[in-house]
Automatic annotation (TrEMBL):
Record keyword Metal-binding present: yes
Record-linked InterPro entries: Metallo-B-lactamas (IPR001279), Mito_Persulfide_Diox (IPR051682), POD-like_MBL-fold (IPR044528), Rhodanese-like_dom (IPR001763), Rhodanese-like_dom_sf (IPR036873), RibonucZ/Hydroxyglut_hydro (IPR036866)
Species of the source: Halarchaeum salinum
PANTHER family assigned: PERSULFIDE DIOXYGENASE ETHE1, PERSULFIDE DIOXYGENASE ETHE1, MITOCHONDRIAL
Keywords: Metal-binding
Keyword tRNA processing on entry: no
Domain Rhodanese: 27-123
Protein name in UniProt: Rhodanese-like domain-containing protein
GO biological process: glutathione metabolic process; hydrogen sulfide metabolic process
A GO molecular-function annotation: metal ion binding
């Protein structure tokens, strides 16, 4: 193939929507990605999958054409999907590749478009409530819609997807009465205030999270350990489970435990985001919280966390939950003695979530970014677990 100089024409190169690309990846189809973002951006956050092959080559190194080194890494017999941060650079590079004879397309809206994907699936649980799990593949964030007898609550909502929660509640014949956070999040902008403004839902924070100095510009309620919220025919019990943060709280509905960032289906929380200097003390507290959950609840209690990672294996129905007993059997961290657990958790923790300080400040009410700025702050992986790899064996 010839190495033509960078050329633009009026003919637009073919584009693929983020949703369509994800369908291909989910179906196990071979996908070849040329990521033209910077090396650091690609290293921090990228599109992965069992059938995905990704090559990173920064855009600014391709302005004068396609280097022979890159030609050697690109397939001649497979479609190439070019992606960048917002979709502009990838379209230009894709056009250059097309002029060089490659079968190529570019990702519409780039990684910002990828971050707009939001999916929902109903959990198969016993009880008087319908529970839907939302997942954001770009970051691994999970949220939950709980519906019972015409009332609904959202647990750990994301501000960027306020309309989805409202529409889905209405589709199920319910009014959103509560928007609840498990703690002060460090990886995404909370949606509890946006939902309070949109549909007059009551924003609820754990009392211990509020103690961190929350200063909202609208009214909200707090809930203490052992107190309950009532949603239709079900009670939502608050269980203080500090460790990830001082305010971390688990919510129980029947045998479902919404553990926030305290316990995931493949790992446990990192203890350093609220106060890095107190990470060991927080890890000690986390150990005590996890052991209290294990002692109190039966093995068939369903763990429904606020995040999943690339190391997580979804269930057959594409949900991210696990029985507590299974986690105890497969996650060594849950059966370690306390000192071994502390050493294990604070060693080799992954990088902190991007922009975590600004996100925390926003969720405390100290900063007030507009919707677009807020969305851009939370781009990237959540990194709220103590390990990037699965702790389950």
């Amino acid at each position: 193939m010839s190495d033509n100089a960078f050329v633009t024409t009026e003919a637009a190169v073919e584009e693929v929507t983020p949703e369509r690309l994800k369908e291909r990846i989910d179906a196990g189809k071979d996908v070849f990605l040329l990521d033209v973002r910077s090396e650091s951006d690609h290293e921090e956050w990228r599109i992965d999958g069992a059938s995905v092959e990704s090559v990173n080559y920064p855009y600014f190194e391709l302005l004068d054409g396609i280097p022979e080194e890159l030609h050697e890494r690109l397939p001649d017999d497979q479609r190439i999907t070019v992606l960048c941060a917002k979709g502009g650079s990838s379209e230009m590079i894709a056009k250059t590749l097309e002029d060089n004879g490659y079968n190529v397309e570019h990702l519409e809206r780039g990684m910002k478009g990828w971050a707009r994907i939001y999916e929902c699936v109903e959990l198969d649980t016993d009880g008087d409530a319908t529970i839907a799990q939302y997942r954001r593949p770009s970051s691994g964030c999970l949220a939950y819609l709980v519906v019972s007898d015409g009332e609904a609550a959202v647990i750990d909502p994301l501000r960027a997807f306020t309309e989805e929660y409202v529409q889905d509640a209405r589709a199920l014949g319910a009014d959103l009465t509560y928007a609840v956070d498990t703690h002060v999040h460090a990886d995404h902008i909370s949606g509890i205030r946006a939902l309070a403004e949109e549909v007059d839902a009551t924003a609820v924070l754990p009392e211990t999270a509020d103690a961190r100095g929350v200063d909202y510009n609208r009214e909200y309620e707090t809930i203490a350990d052992g107190e309950t919220l009532h949603i239709g025919d079900v009670d939502v019990e608050a269980i203080h489970t500090p460790g990830h943060t001082t305010g971390m709280t688990t919510y129980r509905i029947g045998n479902v435990l919404f553990t926030g960032d305290g316990l995931f289906t493949e790992s446990v929380a990192r203890p350093d985001l609220e106060d890095p200097e107190a990470a060991r003390d927080a890890a000690r507290t986390l150990y005590e919280s996890l052991q209290a959950l294990i002692e109190r609840f039966d093995d068939d209690a369903v763990i429904a966390p606020a995040h999943y990672s690339d190391a997580t294996t979804p269930n057959d129905d594409d949900t991210y939950t696990a029985d507590l007993g299974t986690l105890v059997d497969t996650m060594d961290a849950l059966t370690m003695d306390q000192e071994t657990f502390i050493d294990y958790i604070v060693t080799d923790m992954p990088p902190r979530p991007a922009n975590h300080e600004k996100i925390i400040a926003t969720n405390l009410g100290q900063q007030a970014p507009d919707d677009e700025t807020a969305f851009e702050l939370e781009l990237g992986p959540n990194n709220c677990a103590a390990s990037e790899d699965a702790m389950t064996n």
